[in-house]
Amino acid sequence: ETAALLFLFLFSLVYQPTLATDLGALQERITSTVKGSITSVQAIYVPADDLTDPAPATTFAHLDATTVLSRQIAELGIYPAVDPLDSNSRMLQAEIVGQEHYDVARGVQKMLQDYKGLQDIIAI
User: Fold this and answer.
1) Where is the signal peptide (predicted)?
2) How many domains does the structure of the chain reveal?
3) Host domain of residue 39
4) Assigned domain for 110 exists
C-alpha cells in the first residue's frame, strides 16, 4: 500500500528493497511543518502476528507510539486486547511524563515481563 501511495510498482508477495526509504518518504509527507501539523493514526497489518516481519518492523521505526492488539489477550476476554509489553511510546520519558510516572510505568512493565517469563512454571 505504501508503494501505491507513492506511485511505485510493487511485485506481489515480495517486499520491495526500498521499503525503509519509501516509508521514510511517506512519513515525511505527513510531518509537522511551520504551516501546520497532522496527527495520523496508522493501522499496520502484521502477518502471522510476527512483529519481527520486515514490513511491520520497518514501519514501527517511523512511529512515535505503537499500540499492539494481542489475540492471546483477546482469548482471555480482556478488551481492548492491548499488549502492554509490545506496545510503546517515545513519550514515555522521565523528562516528559515526570519521574514518578516513568518509574511506575517501567515498574509495571517489569512485573508483567517477569510474570510472562514465569507463566510456564506457573502452569505446572
Assistant:
1) 1-20
2) 1
3) 1-63
4) no
| 78-93 pLDDT tens trace | 999 999 999 999 999 9
pLDDT tens-digit map of 3-36: 566 555 555 455 667 788 888 888 888 877 888 8
- Per residue, the 3-state secondary structure of the chain, as one string, reads CHHHHCCCCCCCCCCCCCHHHHHHHHHHHCCCECCECCCCCCCCCCHHHCCCCHHHHHHHCCCCEECCECHHHHHCCCCCCECCCCCEECCCCHHHHCHHHHHHHHHHHHHHHHHHHHHHHHHC
Specify if 53 maps to a domain.
yes
CA atoms within 13 A on the CB side of 67: 6
pLDDT of residue 70: 92
CB atoms within 10 A of CB 53: 16
Q: With respect to residue 122, please indicate whether it lies within any of the assigned structural domains.
A: no
In this structure, is residue 78 part of a structural domain? no
